[in-house]
Write a structure and sequence with these properties.
Elements (H helix, E strand, L loop, with lengths): L16 E3 L5 E3 L3 H19 L6 H22 L8 H15 L9 E2 L4 H27 L11 H23 L5 E2 L18
Antiparallel strand pairs: 1-2, 3-4
Length: 201
């Protein structure tokens, strides 16, 4: 995985480039660097979510996911190197099945909100989707069969399933806080969701 940082300020990036794990250098606005940055941002948002009061099992899952995302960023940083595997995907699938089984079926769209923890989980979900878009863009640019460093499918599949899991966990966290889903009101009508004059809402 390359050398661990012993000196934070290296000045090697002053020219607008950054080093990859294989020793090559690319521009800091390269799509690969953008994808790595989105994964890093997602991991940071999960770190903020972990500052909240959470059920022990959710906390444990999110901690594992943080380590997975660090591995995923490492894979993106080292062209041709594989870290994320089908086992990582299977673990997400297991959590999705486990937590979704505890929730009532959705009959309406829901809004991001409710408890603070649930709202933060929705932020994680949206950042995860952004990371997915960049990884898809990188895949299109590099090609999954390109030589010498094809982009594996597992990182893209991982963030796709993780965004679903964050949606489910937001619902779980609202219930853990004693609340429920915040439903989108499709029948707001001409009032556009605003209380009418004289209303006590």
């Amino acid at each position: 995985m390359g050398n661990r940082l012993s000196k934070i300020t290296t000045r090697t990036g002053d020219d607008g480039t950054t080093g990859l794990g294989d020793g090559s250098r690319v521009r800091k606005d390269d799509v690969r660097i953008a994808a790595i940055g989105e994964v890093d941002e997602l991991n940071s948002h999960i770190g903020v979510l972990l500052c909240e009061t959470l059920p022990d099992d959710v906390r444990a899952a999110l901690t594992v996911i943080q380590h997975d995302l660090f591995d995923l960023g490492g894979e993106l940083c080292m062209p041709g190197h594989t870290i994320v595997t089908d086992a990582h995907l299977a673990r997400l699938d297991g959590w999705l099945a486990e937590y979704n089984a505890t929730l009532p079926p959705l009959k309406e769209f829901i809004l991001p909100g409710g408890s603070r923890a649930a709202a933060l989980a929705h932020v994680c979900r949206t950042v995860c989707r952004r990371a997915e878009r960049l990884i898809v863009a990188l895949s299109a640019e590099q090609g999954e069969t390109a030589s010498p460093a094809p982009l594996a499918q597992a990182p893209r599949r991982y963030v796709n399933r993780l965004s679903d899991l964050m949606f489910v966990l937001a619902r779980v966290l609202n219930r853990a806080a004693g609340g429920a889903d915040v439903l989108w009101r499709h029948d707001r009508g001409a009032s556009n969701g605003q209380p009418e004059a004289g209303s006590n809402e």
